[in-house]
Structure formats: structure tokens, C-alpha cells
Design brief:
Layout: H1 2-20, E1 25-29, E2 32-36, E3 40-45, E4 51-56, E5 61-62, E6 75-78, E7 85-88, E8 94-101, E9 104-110, E10 121-128, E11 134-142, E12 149-158, E13 167-170, E14 176-179, H2 181-188, E15 201-207, E16 215-219, E17 225-230, E18 238-244, E19 250-256, E20 266-267, E21 273-278, H3 282-293, H4 297-300, H5 311-315, E22 318-323, H6 330-340, E23 344-349, H7 370-382, E24 385-392, E25 395-397, H8 401-405, E26 422-423, E27 433-435, H9 441-457, E28 462-466, H10 488-502, E29 511-515, E30 527-529, H11 535-539, E31 544-546, H12 549-554, E32 559-561, H13 594-606, E33 612-614, H14 620-623, H15 625-639, H16 642-645, E34 649-651, E35 660-667, E36 680-687, E37 689-695, E38 701-707, E39 713-720, E40 730-736, E41 739-746, E42 750-757, E43 762-769
Parallel strand pairs: 22-23, 22-33, 23-24, 24-28, 28-29, 29-30, 30-32
Antiparallel strand pairs: 1-2, 2-3, 3-4, 4-5, 6-7, 6-12, 8-9, 9-10, 10-11, 11-20, 11-21, 12-19, 13-14, 13-16, 14-31, 15-18, 16-17, 17-21, 18-19, 25-27, 26-27, 34-37, 35-36, 37-38, 38-43, 39-42, 40-41, 40-43
Length: 770
Amino acid sequence: MKNVKSVFLLLIFFSIIIFILPACNTESEGQVVYLENGKLKLGFDKNTGTLLVFEDLINSHEFLETNITHCSLWEFDILKPGGPEKINMTAATKFDLFSPNSSTLVLEWSDFPSLKNKKLKVVATVNLEKDKAMSNWSMLLEGTKGMEISQLAFPRIKGLKDMGDEYLAVPFWLGQLFHNPRESLREMQTESLGQSVGKQANYSFNYPGPLSLQLVALYNPDSYGLYMACNDTAGYSKSFSFSLDADDNLTYEVINYPAIDANSDKYSPVYQANIGSFKGDWMTAAALYKEWGEKQLWCKNSRLDNDLIQPWLKETAIWVWNRGKSEKVLVPAIDLKKRAGLPVSVFWHWWHGCSYDDGFPEYMPPREGKESFIAAMKKANDNDVRAIVYMNSIQWGTETQSWKDENAEPYAVKDLEGNTRSHVYNIFTGKSLTNMCMGTKFWRNKYASLSDSVVNTYHTNGVYMDQACLSRKCYDKSHNHTRGGGNYWVKNYAELTNMIREKTDTIRQPVLAGEGCCEVWLPHLDAFLTLRVSMERFAGVGSREPIPFYTMVYHKYGVLYGNYSSLLVPPYDELWPREYAPKDPEALLSEDFNKQYLMEQARSFVWGSQPTISNYRNFLASKRKDEIDYLIELAKVRYQGLKYLLHGEMLRSPEMSVPSEEIDISRLSIYAGKTGGSVTVFKKEVPLIYSGTWKSDDNLLGIAIASISDNPFQLNFNLNSDDYELPAKGDIYIIDIEGRRLLSSYSDKKVQVNFSLPPKGLCIVEITPN
């Protein structure tokens, strides 16, 4: 009886083991070692470490081309007098791999004959998450003493298979979506004569900076996709890159930038790269990233979520983005405030005494004089209009007197050769601006002092810190920061914003806004200028589309505003050379572009940004009455739904069938006009109805709807309440310019919305428990 019982227990034991093992294991088949967890399967060449297999087991899809027999998973640069020496897997004569547990594989390269340092060892660790189609990649360079390592490419995945109807989603600030990115890269490989030059073309996105999240997604929305991210919590410098070589091989890699230190004996990024498989689109990828992102300190310490920002910023209904003296900036804003009957705030360029884009930072005194400026600010504030003023947060004009008098050059950003990073933005004067190093106390003190003056002396309500959400790598050994990479830029930017706030009392506490948006700046800035809603104005029409990628992850943690949306041609700075000045500096844009203006405002509304109009003048209320009325109505509807459109969480919208139309698109620039016409015209097919879906903190659902159509439209769509974590029954309301009214009720989890949307109609469909 005991023997039977023992056999029975052994059978149970082995059955459990057999059941558990497939959950995550490693195995070897010939020359390939596999790591799999039932969701993903990775295969590595047992002799070299080359990645040969990256398979989605759920959808039976292999992401790698089968003809890629060798590609180094990593490559690092060692600085040498004649240029960087590149070291990759092929330089090692010894390779080993082992599995410390069933979910992890360690790959180790050593013995590099070409290097003097014989102790160098490169160790890559790949781990599969339990019950997830996700892999995590870590890297260690050991025995690096005496080497100046400037960058490490890891992981590098070559030979990504074409998925067919392919999209690349990139959180380039607010976000943009590339359709058929390989074709765009092929076009980059081609010369103007149409002949292939056989070069490698690449997209590279820098973080922290224009890349606002550590995430890119390559996918076919009807089948499968690759989720590619990092889990850095401290803002270390890196870039995400896609390249296409002459053989049409697509490669993805993360380039990590260490602090250059020849005395250090090892380098290991303090974060992992994450590569996984998913089914869906960019919103699916954003939701996956959000699960991680919301747990980080930048959300816990965000200024909006902790109610640290000035009330007037949250209450702003419309921003006026004007340029020039107060009569062309504050006076029109007061006019719009009276027309709208809602709070209006001002985003003020060209208030400063210097020429734009070459005379920075000689901002003061204001071009209209100190007394006039202060009086204008007082009048605006008395009319409940607030203003933040432009000051570039990193640039200094190299031909300014202050550049020489204050000996600014030693504190500028330097490249590896010790050169400053200069660029000519102003095509009319040809004078350059140079990047100042945020890691120097000199520049932080300089900018904090300027901010002190504009807030405390000139009584502005805050500072717009241009080029804020960017980071630079500085190699100046005399600066008090690590050389090259690291995370000193974000740390010192935080120090700068703290200095500015410490210089002002609690009553005059300034609003600090910045260009772009990026997760690591959430604890430091109050508002973020996001201009992708009007991307066509500066980028024209092509294979890229703006998307609210960042918004899907972090909307409730920071105020978003901004729009190039304008009904006038771009202005011309009165301090620029007169020979290039337009005859009519306030000419109306053709009415052909009115629908583009409406599209930009509609996007801003449904994507949860504070509405903004550029170049507003009083006469627009009559000469472009319909367009100004649209902006005012949009602001009034939005103001009734701030629980959604300011504080809410963005979700996927229900499927809607909406009409589209080909409209005229203008590409504008403040620098256009030197050689001819100021407007470049495109055609683009665009939706006539826009939507954005929002969940409030009290678990209600608001769907913002904006029409730019000249005709009414019967809007009819359905959703399941479970998809939005709503009760099985409830009520459906319409919030519009007339207020809030009951549309219908729903039950059995079936929400049916059916109503007539008037021409250029604006509303919020609200779904609540009854």
C-alpha cells in the first residue's frame, strides 16, 4: 500500500513539474539556445550570441528575417585621438552563455585581442516576464578602466520583418504616427536625382527631450506589433533609433550615453530595455506603458496632480499667442476675454528689447519701455488677463555685447572637440545662438536672475521657458557635471526651476511653462506647449500624422496648451532688417485655409489641450466671425467639462463612422517671405468630425465631439459599458453651448448614442449612472 501511495505521489509531483516547466524555460536545439515563457520565444546562436529568433507564440509570428545570420547585439565606442574605435561581438574570441533560472539567459563575451585591456568582459542579461509577452534586456561592461566609452548601442535588433500595413508610433513630444516608415527611410536613401546612394538611413529620437516617453511601437494594426521601451526612472540620456541599410534590413537599437570616465572599471545602464509583442495599435502600446509610467515619481510629484500650480492657469479658457508690444498683445487679449466671457491668458513673444532669435538673453528692458510695460501688465491683470513671457532657457547670442562682457563662452555646451553648439535660426540677420550648459551654476544663476526680474520687477505672471523639454550632452571637463551622458541635465533643470520659485513670494508665484512635453519634467513645469495639433503648419503634409500619444499616458499630470492656429499671415519682428519686412504685416490668410484652422482647434479640444489662437486681433471678430465664434463656443463647451478635458484620463474612443473631405493646408513660418511667397499650399483628406474619450476621477465618461463640417450629421455609435468600467445601466447627456440635457438612458451594458450634430457642432457626450 505504501509503494502504491509513493508511486501515486511521484506521479502527481512529476505532473506538476511538467505543467510548470513550459511557463518559462531554456532549451537548446542544434546551434540555437531558446528562451521562452509560453508567450515569447527568443533564440540565440550558441556560438556567437546572435539573436536569430524573436517569436510571438500566441499569434505564431516571427519578427525577424530568416536570412540574418550575424548581427552584433551590442556595440560601444571608445574615444581615441583619431576618432572613436567601435567594438562589437566580432572583436571577442570567447563567448559563453548560461541560464541562472528558467526565465533568464546570460550571454558573456570576453578575450578581446585588439584591446590593451585584457580584463574586458561584456555581459548581456535577457529576462522574460512571467505570463507576459515581454523581454527585459540588461548590459554590463566590466573591466573598462582606462577606456573612455562615449556610447553603447544595446540592444541592437537587426532584420525586423516587414509586417505589411506597417506603422511606427513615436511620442515625439505630443506624438506622431509614421505610415510605412520603411518607405520613408528608402526615400531618405535616395538622392534628388532619384538614384539610390546605398547609404544607411535612420530615424533617431532623443530622450529626455523631443521623445517624451521611453517608448516606440512598430506594428500592423490588424495583426501584431513590437513594443520597444526602456524603464529608466531618472532621465538618463539615450536615443531610440531605426535604420535601413543598403540591403533593406531594418534595425532597431537603443543608444545609451554613459558618463565618460576612464577611471571607472565598469558601465551598466541603471535601467533595462523592454521589447515585447502586442496586438493592437499605438493606443494599446500607450496603455501598456502607462501601467509602468504612472507608478513613477514624476507622476507622484507632478505639479498639476498635487495642486501646486496657480489657479488662474487651470482656469484659463483660451490662450492668445501674440507677438510685439502690449498694444498688439494684451489689448487684443482683453478684447477676446470680454467677447468670450471666460478667462483668457497670454503667451507673449517679442516683448523683449532684443531682436528675436539672435539677441538673447538681452531681454530687458522691454521694447516698449519699463513704465509702459508695467502699466500694461497692471491693466491686463485688472481685467483678469494673465501673461507669461518668452525667454529661451538655453540660448545666448554670440554677437551680443553681453556674450563678451559676461564671458559666457566657458559656460556653453561643448562637443567632444571642445566646440560650442551654435546654430543660426534667424535667416534675416544670420547671427547665431549658442547652447548654454544647464550643468553650470553660472547659467542657472543668469536665467534665474532674468526670471526674477520679469516676475518681480516687470510684474509678469510667469515665464515661458523655450527649449525646456530638451537635453544636451556636454563634454566640457571644467563644468561641474559628468562628462557626456548621464542625467545631470534634468537634475540641474529641476534646480533652476526651484531657484526661480524661491526668488518670488507665494503671492507672485510664477507659472513656468516649457516647450514640448516630457515625463521627467512633470514635477518641474506647470504647463507644456504642445504644437503637434497644428503640425501641418510647420511640417506640411506627408506620411506622418499627429497623435496624442503622450496625452494617452500623462494627461492628468500636466497642463497642455498651444496651437499655431492662425487666421493671419505670420508676423515680422520690427527689430529685424526692414528690407525683408512685408508690406502688410497683418494680412488675413485666404479663407481657403479656414477649415485648417477649425481642424486645429477641433484636435486641441478633443485631445484635452487648453485652446490657443495665434496672432489674434480685434478685427478678426468681424472679418473672420465664424472662426472666432467657433473658438469661443469650443471654449465654453470645454469649460463645462474640465473634469474630463483638464483632469481626466484619455481612453480609446468608440468606433464611429464619420465623413471626410479634402481641404487646403497652409505651411507657414515666421521666416518665410525672404525669397518669395509666405505660404506653401497642400491638399489633405481629413475627418470632418473629431472625438476624444475621457474618464473623470469620479468614474464618469465624457466623449468630446467636434465637427468642422458645413453640414449637419447624424452621429450614431455604440459601446459596451464594461469596456469603460461603467455600470450596466445609466443615463446619456449632451453638454453643449446650451448647457447639459438628458439625451437617453441605457441598460444591459449596451450604450447607444444617436443624435444630430449641427454644422460645426461642439459637445461632450456624458455617460453616467442613473
